[in-house]
Amino acid sequence: MKLKRSKKKQPTYPYTVFILGAGFSKDAGGLLIKDLLAQKADIPEDYQYIWDLYERAKKRGIVTDVESFMDYLSGLSFLELGWKIKRLKKRKSFVMASKIYSDTIIAVLNILERAIDKVSSAGLPNFYSLFADKFLRLLNGGSHPTNSIVTFNWDVVCEQMLLDGFKHLKYPSDQIKPYEDYVGFRKGINVFKLHGSSNWLYCEKCNTIYAFEQSLAHDPTKIASYRCPKPGCRKALARTIVPPTWEKTTYVNQLKALWKLAWNELREKAHQVIVLGYSFSDRDLLARYLIFTALAGNQNLKRVILVNGNSDDGESFLRGFLGDKVKNMRATFADFVSSYDIKNLP
Ligand SMILES: [Zn+2]
């Protein structure tokens, strides 16, 4: 009995894990998958043949966006694909399918990097700071954060919001180290970036990710000059961005430890999950698998709140194993934030 009474005195909020998708960054200028490969001019010269291939497949109704295009490519035999390109480029010999596939990834990454840079650095719309105040401040008032954010976005909108609001955030994995020991990443709310980040560079030799204060997308030429700061290593650092292909395994391998931590967060800790602008695309197999295996086995989970605009995205997938625990708000992020806070969720 004593224990019960003393517990009641504490203001308790359910342990909340936020899942963020492209829709979260959209209002800050973030890019949606459907907008990738939107213009030929976005693609570097050497890879423009990919755009032609993409446009043709789109006209024939075979693909609708970059993700389905990548699926389509991986489903073609290298012979089929090779001949297609030969016709397209009027070349004498055909190009290996594996090269087209990797070229496509490079082209998409290139577009992504440039698009990430366009995400507002001048300041976020007001409802981002409102969200930080109404949802995150109460949960993370103390020095020991008890809630977390799992995000599939490459851009640093979430970071900017947290640094503006709290001066700090934390990438919760020993594998990720703040570059030059940047103090902003030492404490605060845990942010799991499962598809990498535009401010991360990876050292293959030490399997370490260095987190920079800001996005590095604005100056890709500089990236090549960064080396691992560890004495005795000094290996050239590379980007840590998982491209939008269904075959993410090779890329996700670098981030295995982080995925495991995020899984643990959703499986063992979450009492409620709030989804902001994440569509649960069929092609995001790994992400869906992570969310399914974690949440289906979570004994403490009370509910999942979906904030995906006026759409059904993710609803039937989640209801399939969580039933009535799923609540679709049918609200935009901005509307949701202006109507609710962490204390008065419906
Ligand atoms: Zn190293």
Our Rg estimate from Cα atoms comes to 21 Å
Largest sheet at a glance? 6 strands, parallel
**CATH classification class of the largest domain:** Alpha Beta
Overall mean confidence score, pLDDT: 82
Order of helices and strands: HEHHHHHHEHEEEEHEHHEHEHEH
Question: Would you kindly provide a written description of the structure presented here, covering whatever features stand out?
Answer:
The protein is α/β, with parallel strands linked by helices. The protein folds into 2 domains: 2-30 and 121-198 and 243-339, TPP-binding domain (Rossmann fold, 3-Layer(aba) Sandwich); 34-118, no CATH class. Helix content is 40%, strand content 13%. Helix 13 links the parallel strand 9 (303-307) and strand 10. Helix 4 packs antiparallel against helix 6, helix 7 packs across helix 14 (333-339) and helix 11 (256-269) runs parallel beside helix 12. It is globular and about 65 Å long. The structure holds zinc ion. Residues 203, 205-206, 208, 228, 230, 233, 235 line the site of zinc ion.
